[in-house]
Amino acid sequence: MPAADEAPVRYAVADGVATVTMNRPRVGNAQHPLMTYALDDAFTRAAADDAVRVIVLRGAGRHFSAGHDIGTPERDAGGPFERRTLWWDGDARPGAEAPFVREQEQYLGLCRRWHEIPKPTIAMVQGGCIAGGLMLAWICDLIVAADDAFFQDPVLRMGVPGVEYFAHAQELNLRLAREFLYLGERIGAERALQIGMVNRVVPAAQLEAETYAIARRLVQQPKLALALAKQVFNRIEELQGLRASIDMAFGYHHLAHAHNQLVHGDGIGGQDPRAMAAANRGDEPGC
Ligand code: ZN
Predict the structure, then answer these.
(1) I need a surface site. Which of 85, 110, 121, 217 has the fewest CB within 10 A?
(2) For 202-236, what is each residue's pLDDT tens digit?
(3) How far is the CA of 224 from the centre of ligand 1 (A)?
(4) Distance 16 CA to ligand 1 centre (A)
(5) Residue 74: helix, strand or coil by DSSP?
(6) Ligand 1 centroid, distance to 257 Cα (angstroms)
(7) Domain ranges across the chain
(8) Is the pTM for the entire model greater than 0.85?
(9) Residue 140: exposed, middle, or buried by beta-carbon count in 10 A (0-12, 13-18, 19+)?
(10) What integer pLDDT is reported at residue 281 of this predicted model?
(11) Which residues surround ligand 1, an ion (CB under 5 A)?
(12) What spacing in Å lies between the alpha carbon of 255 and ligand 1's midpoint?
């Protein structure tokens, strides 16, 4: 096991608030399997602990999350993992089965599971919130952003029509969602606030104080009533098409992965972090 300061996720509880911290700052908190399963362990612990009323999800270092790990040596580290959905372990299966089953479990299944945590969750976002990072922010109830935060889904360049948890059309006005995905450009924090994708934008130096002030107010609210309100909002999202949209898009997402594999010999169109970062004119190590 890695030392605590090297663990991919840190977990702490204070005054009714659980803090779940993604902890790979050297690679922008790129999500590899060790991290996604550690996130699930942390969320499971927070959900079960009666002393926890609110969960804050944050990233160590400059960025919230650079997305899924597509380039570090540890990208496939760890495992086999105790599975959290009913999908089987398909990694050794031929053809499109392996990536389809793996992403059902590790990306789509886990995000849906975390979206259903019956306690309010707050994403505290600074710096980049890119592709797979969007998935983690979007599954939270509230998003508090630093004024240096930006949001981006650049995966179309990889020949893939958006990330696995396709909530673009719910999180953004449809016209803006098209632009966001087609161009893959960044949306800054202020713009994200204008279009209703985040709740608040605060100076970066005050991000933690403002986020935890909101969390403390939620701690004072009746626990069950909050859980029930969350259930209502989640079911409304489904009635508005979130679940069906994601399932439909996930099929196209995997048609794209399979096409890329056939044509380019890999699932992401021959892209790697260096090429993606160069194209983004940024320094994001993942996507
Ligand atoms: Zn994928």
Answers:
(1) 217
(2) 999 999 999 999 999 999 999 999 999 999 999 99
(3) 36
(4) 35
(5) coil
(6) 7
(7) 4-280
(8) yes
(9) buried
(10) 60
(11) 103
(12) 10
